[in-house]
Design a protein that fits this description.
The chain has helices at 2-32, 147-160, 223-229, 258-269, 336-342, 390-393, 415-424, and strands spanning 39-40, 57-58, 79-84, 97-101, 115-120, 122-125, 131-134, 138-141, 171-177, 180-187, 210-217, 241-245, 278-282, 284-285, 305-308, 314-319, 324-327, 371-377, 383-389, 408-412. With 438 residues, it is an alpha+beta fold. It folds into three domains: 2-52 and 333-437, no CATH class; 58-67 and 180-308, no CATH class; 79-177, wza like fold (2-Layer Sandwich). The strands form six sheets. It has a six-stranded mixed beta sheet with strand order 1-19-18-20-16-17, sandwiched between helices. Strands 11-10-15-12-13 form a five-stranded mixed beta sheet.
Amino acid sequence: MNRKCFSAKLTSICLSGAAALSLNASIGCHAITDVHESIPASRLPRHLCVEPREGRSVFPFTALGQQKPDGHIIGPGDQLSVFVFGVIPPGTEGTPILQRTQPINQRYYPPHGSVIGTTTGLPVMVDQDGTVDLPFVGLVRLSGFTLQEATNAVKNAYREKEITKEETERVQVSLITARVHRVVVLREDTPAPQVQLVKPGQVDQIHRGSADVIDLPAYENDVLHALSITGGLPGTDAAREIWVFKRAGLANPHAICAEELASRSESFRNGASGENQVVRIPLTGCPGESLPFTAADVVLEDGDVVYLPRREEYFYIGGLVAGAKIPMPRDEDIDVIEAIALANGSVGGPLGQSGVALAGGTPGYMVRPTRVIILREMPDGRQLPIRVDLARAMVDQKERILVQPNDVIMLQMKPAQAFFNGMLNLVNFNTIVDPKKF
């Protein structure tokens, strides 16, 4: 009776093992039938390889600002004080004292309060055409002059009208407040000091950007000062580039793609006008590469918008590892081995997935899978399968290719690995017959 029970139990074990082997073999064969059209990683053409990130250099940050001249150059929007003895102000024998203030955005300017000193004369505003309206002489063009040149221009204007004489004239032109440029800075990174840390494989689904309206005085109206006021350089969750949307020519705004963005940036550098211009300012480049932007690109005018886009770069992993959507580091390269290591959990081994294989009575994957299929998106939208051998990648650098954004990485078994692991799992260790019963 015991022998019959043992024979029946052994037959049941063999049948269940054969079914498991058939299932593992079918799964393994199905998993590898799609690799025949794939390209080996060692034969991947160079134009399909990823450009390394770790070798890029940072452009000098001084290039994001503009050079300040030795003396202030008068322009539209400047508030000047003009004093002409006996004329401005009229009937004044003494020298009038004017208290200067800076009624603009106190977040940035002035750094020590609103009172910035005193001057003499009466305040006048430089019009958009670069002229000022003075008593008895009318419009006098002062745009483009230094303060000393503007003083000489006012003297000449009153001398020509024979209102003042050279030997007795007292004329002074001073700067009350410089013109300011109001710009908007939109950031999609995290400029707040309370930065939330996430795990390498965790995706931050909730994110909030920031916006600031700032007033920049003349000769500091550039990208460098706009970044300094609103939180500094882009964070690690932002791209290493800055977009500047020019206010001029926004008659027909519409959505633009990357190609149109590049063409408009080039047309702006060439002096083209008539349409809304977008300037792209990268912060990194290859060693020895010249600046891809000019000094005019970083200068901001009234109504310009500085935009810091968020970086949306992920790769996907699945197959014999737990599926995940993993963010890519901004300034570091990730190869295929590091991508597998970033995946959650183990890929098998003697204890199986998370060490639960023995709890089910099976040894798990004694032979670890070494085949990786990378689905890489092509410029035309097609997906190119790339085949990687992890065993060879340990010793062959050509096999250890870099991962690029939107890659889909699938870990699979080779036929021999699937067969061997299937054979090991034929026998359920919980059903091993105790010889003491016979």
